Amino acid sequence: MDLKEHIRGIPDFPKPGILFYDISTLLAHPRAWQYTVERLGDEVAPYEPDLLMGIESRGFLVAAPLALRLGCGFAMIRKTGKLPGETIPYTYDLEYGSDTIEIQADAIHPGHKVVIIDDLLATGGTADAAIQLVRKVGGTAAALAAIIELTFLDGRAKLDVPVHTLIAYES
Question: N or C end of the chain: which has fewer CB within 10 A?
Fold first, then answer.
């Protein structure tokens, strides 16, 4: 199955000059979505993760059914102030400024093997921050998996874990 047939490109979103790759059309097609989850499962299963961490917010949509399929836990990586209870933050640099992501304090236990999941890998900044946050709390960041990779942004080069993607866009 060609998954690119189920991804909608939306020009000038969220701002002019950006081509947004929308997975909502993939999610709406049951066979394509099931195939996507199965393929990602095949990529992630060899790591035998204890936990999948989904990056806000479309990463949640990918990680939750994948965790169910693999029989492992699922937890969320969110922007500051979005998670209840005690949280652990990680602040990282952006081109102009910084951003902070966080997890619930009890999401990862020392030694947990974690695979980070998102819908799309672009520049790699948030993915790297997620990897560093997992390590900060004593987890092992085993890999990152995403549906889409924008290879022209070279985000993979910023990551020091294996990266698995199903679709690559060259420009």
Answer: C
Catalytic residue flag (residue 135)? no
Joined together, the tokens standing for residue 161 give 């874990």
User: What CA–CA distance (Å, rounded) separates 78 from 81?
Assistant: 8
Q: Which one is catalytic: 58, 78, 102, 149?
A: 58
CA-to-CA dists, residue 30 to 24, 58, 144, 150, angstroms: 11, 17, 24, 24
- Which single residue is written with the structure tokens 């999948």? 52
Strand partners, 7: none
Angle at 99 between CA 169 and CA 94, to 5 degrees: 55
**Cβ contact 21:9 at 8 Å:** yes
Sheet bearing 163-169, strands edge to edge = 87-94, 97-104, 73-79, 51-55, 113-121, 140-150, 163-169
d(CA 32, CA 23): 11
Tens of pLDDT, residues 104-149: 999 999 999 999 999 999 999 999 999 999 999 999 999 999 999 9
Task: Point out the catalytic residue in the list 8, 39, 48, 95.
Answer: 95
Q: Where are the domains of the chain?
A: 3-169
Q: Which CATH architecture is the domain 3-169 placed in?
A: 3-Layer(aba) Sandwich (3.40)
Q: Which two tokens stand for residue 17?
A: 């000059």
Active site residue 95: yes
